[in-house]
Amino acid sequence: MMELPLFPLSGVLLPYGRLPLQIFEPRYLDLVKDSMKSESPFGVVWIRRGAEVAERGRASAELGDYGTCAHIVDWDQLDNGLLGITIEGGECFDLFETSTRSDGLVIGQVEIQPTPPAVRLSEESQSLLDILRSLEQHPHVQRLNLRLDYNDSWQVAYALVQLLPMDEALKYELLGMADINDLAAELQVLLKQISGEN
To answer: Any idea where the Lon N-terminal domain is (predicted)?
Structure first.
């Protein structure tokens, strides 16, 4: 068990996935500064209910039971004057309890999960890689500069979940799946549904 500063989000961060964020709240500017200085991750956890920006007198957000360690891989000053960062998902963690510092930053008591060993991409999952390669042609995805092992089913599946247009609650469920075969099978079903809607 260890303490990890948390960045609650309405979006889900997957291992190997990348997300661009705009930082403007002082507590998160400090979090980013500390993370970059110490080269240590912070935790991204999905907000089940509530708001990302805390309001005085409002109940705090209800967070998920697990999340993903986030590493800052890029940063820049945006045209609007805000700090822009790109985070990449690392290990998953289970979240057991939280406390809130005086500046509003949430600290989690977490247990880091071991990274699942690489699983070679099966023939049945080859279509997942084809779709990922297709998505990577999009300029928005190219800007994320993904670094993936395309022979590892976990990395291909997680990257797809990160990029595909689906409800964040579903992404959260998929993040919690511990078996790569189940995850790949669920993705195949979802992709058929998505293509059938177009």
So the answer is: 1-195
Residues 27-43 have a mean pLDDT of: 94
Query: Which residues are paired to 67 by β-bridges?
Result: 45, 93
Q: What is the pLDDT of residues 65-118, one digit of tens each?
A: 999 999 999 988 877 878 889 999 999 999 999 999 999 999 999 999 999 999
Which residues make up the CATH 2.30.130.40 domain(s) of the chain?
Answer: 2-112
Helix (H) or strand (E) segment spanning residue 96: strand 83-100
CATH superfamily of 2-112: LON domain-like (2.30.130.40)
Residues with Cβ < 8 Å from 30, sequence gap 6 or more? 103, 105
